[in-house]
Amino acid sequence: MGTGSEQPDARIAGRLGFSSATHFSKYFHQRTGQTPIAFRDTVRGHAPGHEAAR
Predict the structure, then answer these.
(1) From the CB of residue 46, how many other CB atoms can be counted at a distance below 10 Å?
(2) CB 46 within 8 A of CB 52
(3) Pseudo-torsion of CA 9, 47, 33, 5, nearest 10°?
(4) Packing angle of the helix pair 36-44, 21-32 (nearest 10 deg)
């Protein structure tokens, strides 16, 4: 499971021991300053604010 993962945030959250995707997202945002989706888009080279086909 890396930054290129196609797994939904809820599945990643569960695998990491979070009780919900919301808790994971809040924790991730506190630690990185961005949401998991924004981070994923940045790593993949997508411009912020533009929805990429998923």
Answers:
(1) 14
(2) yes
(3) 30
(4) 60
Structure tokens at 37: 């989706």
Q: In whole angstroms, how far apart are CA 37 and each of 26, 40? A: 12, 5
- Contact, 37 vs 54, CB < 8 A? no
pLDDT level of residue 32 (50, 70, 90 thresholds): very high
Q: Is the pLDDT of residue 30 over 60?
A: yes
Question: Six-digit token pair at 10?
Answer: 């809820």
Residue 6 has pLDDT above 60, yes or no: yes
Number of H helices, E strands in the chain: 3, 0
CA angle 52, 47, 7 (to 5 degrees): 45
